[in-house]
Amino acid sequence: MTAKSFHPPVRTLMGPGPSDVSPRVLEAMARPTIGHLDPAFVSMMDELKAMLQYAFQTRNELTMPVSAPGSAGMETCFVNLVEPGDKVIVCQNGVFGGRMKENVERCGATPIMVMDDWGKPVDPNKLEDALITHPDARTVAFVQAETSTGAQSDAQTLVKLAHDHDCLAIVDAVTSLGGSPLKVDAWEIDAVYSGSQKCLSCVPGIAPVSFGPRAVERIQNRKGKVQSWFMDMSLVMGYWGGGAKRAYHHTAPINTLYAFHEALLILQEEGLENAWARHAHNHLALRAGIEAMGLQFVVEEPYRLPQLNAIAVPAGVDETAVRAELLNRYNLEIGAGLGALAGKIWRIGLMGFASNQTNVLNCLGALEAVLSDMQAPIQPGTAIAAAKSVFGAG
Length: 394
What we know:
about 40% helix; 2 domains; 13 helices; Aminotrans_V_dom; PyrdxlP-dep_Trfase; Aspartate Aminotransferase, domain 1; three-stranded antiparallel β-sheet; Alanine--glyoxylate aminotransferase family protein; about 400 residues; Aspartate Aminotransferase, domain 2; alpha/beta; seven-stranded mixed β-sheet
């Protein structure tokens, strides 16, 4: 085999992630590589950490990017806060609650599952019942923005319930950070993790995490070592802690962190509340077009994520063929359903740099064209006008 330089096609990414990356972020990656202990790099790390605290809306000192994808952010939270023999109440309403369960088990702890239907938010009453039934539980874990379904749960209420029963709260904010309200300090979230490739519009490979005072205290009072050397916060903070002197822990992904710094700078320039409002407004326009076509959302309106839209596949339509046509004819990527929703939904992302008027209109036009060609039961010629009426009112 004779290998050649790889030149990917230009796509519009409107699936569940990764999302489109700003040209500014891509340009940042191409800057000269320097050492991970270089004083100039350490200065950049301090700026990145401050901007990440802004994105999370926290003053937590233990706020940093893990040098790995969002799933490693999840694992970082669990291996530091969960010990063998612990009971952890895990709320599952989609794929990623199931991954939390896996992490609990691999830490040698016992998961107590609180189950809700896919597409529904976590039910606070069910969580409260589980907390009462298991007074020896130490931790509650849930997904704020379930990427597999597009459902958003009430993080503030769920965290308060955990604290009322002397539990710490671990929150998955992979799809919510930068796209919809997330207030770590105001909601008193103990541990939270996210990913760089969703609403922050950075390249994949970075997992932002933040640990609050209760979580730090638990880490400091562990009975045994954290099972993962790489993700042990007591070691990593020797590198990511404040001040000019840093202890070597691992070789950080230098250029990827340049990109992440730029992505956070873009968010700061726009303003967090403005970013939340932009995602919400573009969702309303997409919703108008989708419903005008006669398609339906899976999640009830009060619980829908603006940045991740789960659309029911019409009867008789081959959802795989639709996605293939969108990719081949329009260079447009949307996502398939996972787990219990596989083959039943499309997931349309409006995340970060990809959340804009042009993408909304192009996606609606392409989807309408493909479905019309397949003689799907939709109302053609309606979607674009419906979306434009929302943008015109914005």
